[in-house]
Design goal:
The structure holds two protein chains of two kinds. Chain A folds into three domains: 223 residues, PAS domain (Beta-Lactamase), CATH 3.30.450; 84 residues, Orthogonal Bundle (Helix Hairpins), CATH 1.10.287.130; 175 residues, Histidine kinase-like ATPase, C-terminal domain (Heat Shock Protein 90, 2-Layer Sandwich). Helices cover 56% and strands 15% of the residues of chain A. In chain A, the strands form three sheets. Chain A has a five-stranded antiparallel beta sheet with strand order 2-1-5-4-3. A five-stranded mixed beta sheet of chain A has the order 7-9-10-12-11. In chain A, strands 6-8 form a two-stranded antiparallel ribbon. The radius of gyration of chain A is 51 Å and the shape is rod-shaped. In chain B, β6 and β7 form a beta hairpin. By secondary structure, chain B is mostly beta strands. In chain B, the strands form eight sheets. In chain B, strands 15, 16, 17, 18, 19, 20, 21, 37 and 38 form a nine-stranded mixed beta sheet that branches. In chain B, strands 2, 3, 4, 5, 6, 7 and 8 form a seven-stranded mixed beta sheet that branches. Chain B folds into three domains: 128 residues, Nuclear Transport Factor 2, Chain: A; 141 residues, no CATH class; 294 residues, 6 Propeller (Neuraminidase), CATH 2.120.10. Chain B is globular. The chains are: A alpha+beta, B mainly beta. At the A-B interface, α1, α2, α3, α4 and β3 of A face α1 and β1 of B. β3 of chain A pairs antiparallel with β1 of chain B, so a sheet runs across the interface. Chain B: This is LpqB family beta-propeller domain-containing protein. Chain B: It comes from Phytohabitans maris.
């Protein structure tokens, strides 16, 4: 039984869950639905408790009235019967039975068909006496009631249901002992509760209908009210979405003077201010980039002329004084630097202007890495920094722009050699299904905490007082970062004071794919744990 | 998990909500309070029933007890009498379908004849008085003869007595009736519904007092005995009272169905409910403590008290009950030399003048006997005198009437060879009766005389006539026997053939009769021992009391009684009679009416000259 109920409950719960799934989704998505649902549930609870109270109370009042009336009548009837039977002191007197019948007949006043009641006189302690009743009411008198009335001599009542042929009917059975000259007998006054039952049913139906109507009304009302509030909010949200998507001239409609109108007005004001600011900033940034680009271009023409002159002088330096020759050499070197700087500036301004294009093709990265290391072989040998290369034996194919990748790697390895302080530089290539990665590790002075991000800033120097040894322009890492970003890849730095630094380039195998992880670790395995040196390594995620 | 709990709770709440309100199919037994207490204890019977068989230890007491065995509730009568009879004789000893027992008056103590083996034959010399039925009414005797015999067996001093050979019929002695029954008068309305007519019944003392009113109402429903029926108007045949009358109770509550108020044919303009109420009031008079409430189906319940209407409903009643009534004396008169004189026993010592109507010329002379009666009518007090006179050997009736102060001229009529004492019928007092030529005649105050045919056997032998105070019953003396007849009063007095019964008297032969109480007559005559005697006998003969013994004089030819008021208690019967040579007033130490007691009589009157004393009946 319990198991069956449990099973039923489980099945219902499962079915409920099926229904509740989308409901739950809607619940989370829609404020409107949530408010209506909460209103419906709360008002249902309130209304049903109220309905229950009203129905119960009215039924109780009905029943109490009937009970009191029956009790009053029973008392009168009992007095009458007691009076009528007082003079008999022997139960076997013939007239006792006759009197019982007469009393029952008189008290029933024609029975319920004629507006009277059902009255039964029983004498449970007098075996001689038969029950006086208009019809057999014994099914209505329970043993408990009979015991209470006859044995305990208590006035008691009970509601019983019985079918006398016209459908099951409820009866209120009130019993009282009747003192007589020959010992107590029992009088039962039985009232059919048909009217009361009907009335209670009507009240219940009415209350239920009213309650349901009220709940529905409340639901509709709350839906309407919520709609009133939620619609402008939705409009605001949509407008904000469009705004954030770049449609800066989106505005909300302002209607009336209420709070929502105020919200719309404020929102519109905010949008206007934002738009103005953004336009201004964009303009400024555009001007700045334009300036840089223009300056670079304008510088290039005189520089070409200067270069040609310098080249001429440099070629003829042997004919000059050694001091002048030295100056010509210096001029030549500085012009090289200047030219490099100008090239980098132009490159950066191209990135800034958004003109940089990715020319991706499937490329094996192993020869790319090897070529970069080989080209820097002279510089490293001069600096006394050996380069250790760790490459896989199989080709590592990825859709990349080889020119840009080579530029990134050249930059990274060059920097490592420059800051290697004579210690070896390690270059490693790793790959997996979705990404390829190259790490470049030096064992120089390393980076201080926080510098992992700063290294990618334009013209950033770790120690501004330190003189530039090599001809770095200060824009290399910025350009590399832009190149990596163009690929949809990451360029990250790790460093710790005294442990050197490691840079990792991670690129997706297929152009346009989104990176989730890198095949190589950013932090080298020989690095000391961060707590030991109290430096937390940080990563910089660069997303396309 | 939390959500499931909430859902389950909500489902449970909904289920409770839908089934919780509304009337439940079945509830526990609800205790309301203690049952009613039995209240004051019931009367537990008005008196004890007759002694049982084992109560007797001698043959005399056993015989007495056997003759009393039937006294009690009718449905137990037969069993109880049979209980006295030995088992082998019980079989054929039965009462019949109706609970009736023969009432017998013992003339002498029983005679016991020893048959040996502790067996005696009991011989009784009895008068069969009548038959007591379940309605407490004593009807005419069914048994003839005066000898009853039965056999009893037992050991003297032991309580193992048995009747071994019972008498033919079941018997009840009149002594037992007097001892174990209470006489109770019930009333029926007269046929013209003008006054109540009493009927004597006997309530068994054994019957619980609380049930007696119910019993009486039942008797009323069942109607009067046969002989009285032409005189009265019984309740409708369909009248029924389905409720007991609770008693003792301040307000006596009687309920009838609607048929009880249905007027009999030929009667209209009568408030039937009021009359039924008065009938009940009178019949239940001794049980009414404060008032009586009569509920009829479909009728507002009405309450009755002992008011003027109550007292006037019964013509036999003179005045509301009160102590002054008990001492009141009737006006007494006597004849001396054919003239009426007051007697000293009257109020004020008889010093008042004679009633005005007797003072006219030629009225108060040559009178042989007189009847004087008075009745209050709607207009005034009505007085009438019927005087028997003799002229030229023929008897005549001189009638005088007076309404208030106006006296009508005397009327004389008739001419008979013999004429007895005249009587006035009351309620209304518009007719009188007189015996003339041994026949019964009725006369009006205007002097019209008509013969009243009487049932065969009585007619033509009438010696004396007397009327009950209600005017609906008469007692007639014929061939030395007393009969009572119920009469119908219309334009004329009519007697139906069957409407009479004999009054069994203890006398061998009666010579004069008069009504002395509602249900009793005074009879003068010769006893079985041939001595003159005056008895007061109930008209069913069951109760008899000898009034005067030891008068050695001749036959009483003139006997008058002043009927007792039904509501005044503590009365003594007032009787006067005269015989050859003397007149007697039984109220007093010296019964003989002396010459000096005749107020205003001429000197030298001897007591022998005082004749035909009479009362003014009012």
């Amino acid at each position: 039984m319990l198991a069956a109920a449990l099973d039923l409950w489980r099945r219902a719960a499962r079915r409920g869950a099926v229904v509740a799934g989308p409901l739950h989704h809607t619940w989370r998505r829609s404020l409107h639905f949530r408010v209506v649902a909460i209103t419906l549930v709360t008002s249902s609870l309130l209304v049903s408790s109220f309905a229950y109270l009203v129905a119960t109370q009215s039924t109780n009042i009905l029943l109490d009235r009937t009970r009191n009336a029956a009790l009053k009548q029973l008392q009168v009837d009992t007095d009458y019967a007691a009076e009528q039977l007082r003079a008999f002191n022997q139960a076997y007197d013939q007239q006792v039975q006759t009197s019982l019948r007469n009393i029952a007949s008189y008290l029933s006043r024609g029975g319920p068909e004629q507006g009277g009641a059902i009255v039964a006189l029983t004498a449970s302690k007098q075996p001689y006496l038969r029950t006086a009743q208009s019809f057999d009411v014994s099914p209505l008198i329970s043993d408990d009631l009979a015991h209470q009335v006859a044995v305990d001599s208590r006035v008691s009542d009970q509601i019983r249901t019985h079918d006398f042929g016209a459908g099951p009917t409820k009866y209120l059975v009130t019993g009282s002992p009747v003192p007589t000259g020959f010992g107590p007998i029992e009088l039962y006054y039985i009232v059919p509760l048909t009217t009361e039952d009907q009335t209670a049913g009507q009240i219940r139906t009415m209350v239920l209908l009213t309650g349901a109507a009220l709940v529905i009304l409340l639901g509709v009302l709350s839906a309407l009210v919520t709609r009133l509030v939620v619609r402008p909010v939705r409009v605001a949200a949509r407008t904000a979405q469009r705004l954030s998507a770049g449609l800066l001239d989106q505005r909300m409609a302002v209607r009336g003077e209420d709070d929502l109108a105020l919200l719309a007005a404020s929102f519109n004001q905010m949008a206007t201010n934002l738009q103005r600011q953004i336009v201004r900033l964009e303009e400024m940034s555009r001007l700045q980039r334009r300036f840089t680009s223009d300056v670079s271009h304008e510088l290039r023409t005189p520089l070409t002329t200067v270069r040609m002159a310098a080249d001429l002088i440099f070629a003829e330096r042997d004919e000059f004084d050694p001091a002048v020759a030295r100056a010509a050499e210096l001029l030549q070197a500085e012009l090289d630097r200047f030219e490099g700087l100008l090239t980098d500036l132009l490159e950066i301004s191209r990135f800034d202007a958004g003109f940089a294009m990715l020319d991706a093709e499937p490329t094996d990265l192993v020869p790319v890495v090897r070529r970069v290391v080989e080209r820097l072989g002279g510089v490293s040998a001069r600096a006394g920094v050996p380069i250790e290369v760790s490459l896989p034996e199989t080709p590592v194919i990825a859709e990349v722009d080889p020119r840009r990748v080579e530029r990134i790697l050249r930059n990274l390895v060059g920097n490592a050699v420059e800051h290697g302080e004579g210690r070896p530089v390690s270059v490693a290539l790793g790959a997996d299904d979705s990404a390829v990665a190259v790490t470049v590790r030096d064992r120089g002075i390393g980076l201080r905490p926080g510098e992992e991000k700063l290294v990618f800033n334009r013209f950033w120097r770790a120690d501004p007082s330190r003189a530039r040894q090599t001809g770095g322009t200060g824009l290399g890492l910025s350009i590399s970062l832009e190149d990596a970003r163009l690929h949809g890849g990451w360029l990250e730095a790790w460093g710790a004071p005294g442990q050197g630094a490691q840079f990792r380039l991670t690129l997706p195998v297929r152009a346009g794919d989104r990176l989730t992880s890198s095949p190589l670790r950013l932090v080298p395995p020989d690095a000391l744990p961060p707590n030991a040196i109290e430096v937390r390594p940080t990563t910089l995620e660069v997303s396309a | 998990m939390r959500r499931r709990t909430v859902l389950a709770a909500a489902a449970a709440a909904l289920a409770v909500g839908l089934t919780g309100c509304g009337i439940p199919d079945e509830t526990q037994v609800r205790d309301i309070g203690p049952g009613p207490k039995s209240g004051k204890p019931t009367s537990r019977g008005g008196g004890a029933g007759p002694p049982s068989r084992e109560a007797a230890t001698t043959k005399e007491s056993f015989t007495t007890n056997f003759l009393a065995a039937g006294a009690g509730e009718p449905d137990k009568m037969e069993l109880r009498i049979k209980g006295f009879v030995r088992e082998d004789a019980r079989e054929d000893y039965t009462m019949g379908r109706e609970a009736k027992v023969n009432l017998a008056r013992l003339r002498k103590p029983p005679v016991y004849t020893d048959l040996g083996k502790e067996t005696w034959k009991v011989s009784l010399d009895v008068d069969h008085v009548g038959v007591l039925d379940a309605e407490g009414s004593v009807g005419p005797a069914e048994l003839k003869g005066s000898s009853v015999e039965f056999t009893i067996s037992g050991t003297e001093g032991d309580n193992n007595w048995y009747v071994t050979d019972p008498p033919e019929s079941m018997l009840l002695s009149t002594d037992a009736l007097a001892q174990f029954y209470t006489p109770h008068t019930i009333y029926f309305w007269s046929a013209d519904r003008k006054t109540l007519v009493p009927d004597a019944r006997y309530l068994p003392s054994e019957l619980d007092k609380g049930r007696q009113p119910t019993q009486i109402v039942e008797w009323l429903t069942k109607g009067p005995p046969d002989w009285l029926e032409p005189a009265v108007s019984p309740l409708n045949d369909n009248a029924k009272s389905n409720q007991n009358v609770p008693y003792p109770k301040d307000r006596l509550e009687v309920a009838f169905n609607a048929a009880a108020a249905e007027p009999p044919p030929g009667i209209d303009n009568v408030d039937m409910v009021l009359q039924l109420g008065q009938q009940l009031m009178w019949s239940l008079r001794s049980f009414v403590q404060v008032d009586l409430q009569l509920s009829l189906d479909g009728e507002r319940a009405r309450t009755f008290t002992k008011d003027q209407a109550f007292y006037s409903a019964n013509a036999a009643n003179r005045a509301p009950e009160g102590p002054e009534e008990e001492d009141a004396q009737p006006e007494r008169f006597a004849l001396v030399g054919g003239k009426i004189y007051r007697l000293k026993g009257s109020p004020d010592g008889g010093t008042q003048p004679l009633p005005r109507l007797l003072l006219a010329d030629g009225v108060n002379e040559g009178i042989l006997s007189a009847a004087l009666a008075r009745e209050a009518t709607d207009e005034a007090l009505r007085t009438a005198a019927a005087l028997v006179t003799q002229k030229d050997g023929k008897f005549q009736l001189r009638l005088v009437a007076a309404v208030g102060d106006g006296t009508e001229a005397p009327v004389t009529s008739g001419g008979f060879t013999s004429m007895g004492r005249a009587v006035w019928l009351k309620a209304p007092m518009d007719v009188g009766l007189v015996v003339a030529n041994k026949q019964l005649y009725q006369f009006t105050p205007q002097g019209r005389l008509d013969r009243v045919p009487l049932p065969a056997g009585i007619d033509g032998n009438v010696a004396d006539v007397s009327a009950a105070p209600d005017g609906r019953r008469i007692a007639v003396l014929a061939k030395g026997q007393v009969y009572v007849l119920g009469i119908a009063r219309g334009v004329k007095v009519e007697v139906e053939d069957g409407s009479y019964r004999q009054v069994p008297t203890p006398l061998k032969s009666a010579s004069a009769v008069d009504w002395s109480e509602e249900t009793k007559v005074v009879v003068a005559g010769t006893s079985h021992d041939d001595k003159p005697a005056v008895w007061e006998v109930s008209i069913d003969g069951a109760l008899a009391e000898q009034q005067q013994v030891g008068d050695p004089g001749g036959t009483v030819r003139h006997l008058v009684a002043y009927p007792d008021d039904p509501v005044v208690s503590g009365f003594t019967t007032k009787v006067m009679y005269s015989r050859e040579g003397a007149a007697f007033d039984l109220d007093g130490v010296n019964p003989t009416i002396e010459a000096g007691e005749v107020m205003g009589a001429p000197d030298g009157v001897t007591p022998a000259q005082v004749t035909a004393p009479f009362f003014l009946l009012d």
